[in-house]
Amino acid sequence: MKMPYLALLLIALNALPASGQEPWRAAVQKVNFRNSTLVPIICQWDNPKYTQARWHKKYGSDFVWMNHYCSSKVKIPICLRYPQKERNECLTSQLHGIEYSITHPKKPGFALLPYLHTEHGDLLQMLNRHIDAIHDFQIALKINRKYIPAYIKLADSYIALKDYDSAETIARQGLTQKNSKALKRRLKKIEVARK
């Protein structure tokens, strides 16, 4: 008779995260991007200075899909509070919102696509999926070769993979577009790593 209770207790204890925190699925459901300062200003729809209508005017009708990105973006800091296994599960679940915002715009020239691909790649970097991240950064640069954040993140992925030649090439290509302190720091980092 005591064995079934013991089994139920063990199952219940295994359902809790190892850290003693509430499960990440419950934690991420409690946040709302519309009034959060943890997200970019384009997601702060309740901010009186930047209404949704203003962003729709600037970016067009495809801006409507950004709510999926914003919903994922606000949850990332919560994911980072958890131990590695739960963190990776939580971060992986946030990929879908960004992917949705990338795949649903009707206009191929949607101005936020380089930004979205870079954000998606950044999330992949957090998951140590650098080869997948590289693909996203390359897409961002194919759309807008002047988008410096993609150069920076692409160089970071190559550095993480210890492909210093590619990292240096990308950093130097980015510097032809803009004199970026961040890219110069990457070149110094590459120089130190090669020693």
Can you describe what's shown?
This protein is mostly helical and 195 residues long. It has two domains: 23-105, no CATH class; 112-195, Alpha Horseshoe (Serine Threonine Protein Phosphatase 5, Tetratricopeptide repeat). It is 67% helix and 0% strand. It has ten helices and no strands. The radius of gyration is 20 Å and the shape is globular.
Summary keywords:
195 residues; Serine Threonine Protein Phosphatase 5, Tetratricopeptide repeat; 2 domains; 10 helices; 67% helix
Distance between the termini: 66 Å
Shape: globular
Strand content: under 5%
The number of distinct structural domains comes to 2
Compute the number of strand runs.
0
- Which regions are unreliable across 5 or more consecutive residues at pLDDT < 50? 3-16
CATH superfamily of the largest domain: Tetratricopeptide repeat domain
Give me the CATH architecture of the largest domain, please. Answer: Alpha Horseshoe
The CATH topology of the largest domain comes to: Serine Threonine Protein Phosphatase 5, Tetratricopeptide repeat
Top-tier CATH class of the largest domain:
Mainly Alpha
The assembly state of the depicted protein chains is single chain
Summarize the structure.
This protein is an all-alpha fold and about 200 residues long.
Task: Produce the secondary structure layout.
Blueprint: H1 2-15, H2 24-29, H3 52-59, H4 66-79, H5 84-103, H6 113-126, H7 130-143, H8 148-160, H9 164-177, H10 181-194
Helix pairs in contact: 4-5, 5-6, 6-7, 6-8, 7-8, 8-9, 8-10, 9-10
